[in-house]
Amino acid sequence: MSTLTEVEKRYLEKILGMESGYVLDYNDMTFGQLFSRHGVEIHGAKYQIYGTSKAKKMRAFWEREPDVLVGRVVSELLDVYEANCKLNGKKVDAAVLKESRSIVGRLSGRPQPTPSSSADDDFLSQEFSVPKLEKLPIEASAVPIIEGRLAEARKALVAGAYLSVIFLCGSVLEAVLLGAAQHEPARFNQASASPKSKEGKVKQFPNWTLAEFIDVACEVGLLKPDVKKFSHGLRDFRNYIHPYEQMVSGFTPDEHTAKLCFQALKAALASVAGERK
Predict the structure, then answer these.
(1) Which of 14, 177, 190, 211 is most deeply buried (CB count within 10 A of its CB)?
(2) 3-state SS track over the chain
(3) pLDDT digits (tens, 9 = 90+) for 108-143
């Protein structure tokens, strides 16, 4: 399944006009032809789990297919949206389109243009200390595990094992945000960005993605916007745990990337512990 977050889906649904049950100006035949070019039989039973409208089939496609395939299809749809606007004299929703293009870039595994290198440097220059783990909303039995992963991440950074740093930092961040959600379930469940099932109910915390934890943690004030931005960068790079994702992107994390990810983790931990004003 794709890693689209609830917030990302809302952007794409808006730009593709899916609120009406349609997708842009496609009819059943042209919709089928679009997906056929990508090797997908969109009118098959596989994509009718939510209903038979084109919008519902699109949501099922997002649910069932991997990031790279979803990114390719959505990229073509965004091109069609822009062409339609030009041909029909309609104004392009530039802000939503820009965000949608960024989503496609993430799905396709392309490193995102933000944060900029200057923003990277500013963020790296800040002083963040790992708080006492007892101050974090995690079970006492998990503290030695978290301590061990942080220590291993430091050793990996010195040894030049940059992918290992990223994977370890991502796992710690996810564990701490899961702990925060379990500590204050009502606060997380009532957030507008909380992920919903097809029945409209908030998903159980073990079924949330790291992206969803980050979005909700920022919404409820646990993470500041800058920490949210860099935490999503950490989450994007952590996806390289799947070799195919790294192969598609052609990107190899270096020391700078690893340091940014470790810095994002330290800032997030400080925020969750209430030590960052």
Answers:
(1) 177
(2) CCCCCHHHHHHHHHHCCHHHCCCCCCCHHHHHHHHHCCCCCCCCHHHCCCCCCHHHHHHHHHHHCCHHHHHHHHHHHHHHHHHHHHHHCCCCCHHHHHHHHHHHHHHCCCCCCCCCHHHHHHHHHCCCCCCCHHHCCCCHHHHHHHHHHHHHHHHHHHHCCHHHHHHHHHHHHHHHHHHHHHHCHHHHHCCCCCCECCCCCECCHHHCCHHHHHHHHHHCCCCCHHHHHHHHHHHHHHHHHCHHHHHHHCCCCCHHHHHHHHHHHHHHHHHHCCCCC
(3) 775 444 444 555 566 667 777 788 888 898 889 999
pTM comes to 0.60
186-222 per-position pLDDT tens digit: 999 999 889 988 788 999 999 998 888 998 999 999 9
Least Cα distance to 4 among 76, 82, 74, 94 occurs for 74
**Backbone phi, psi, residue 76, to 5°:** -65, -40
Least confident of 135-144, 176-185, 234-243: 234-243
The tokens of 162 are what? Answer: 């940059």
The pLDDT confidence band at residue 245, using thresholds 50, 70 and 90, is: low
Q: Which of 128, 142, 194, 193 is nearest to 172 (CA)?
A: 142
CA gap 97, 88 in Å, rounded: 17
Residue with tokens 């949501």: 59
> CA 10 to CA 4: how far, in whole Å?
10
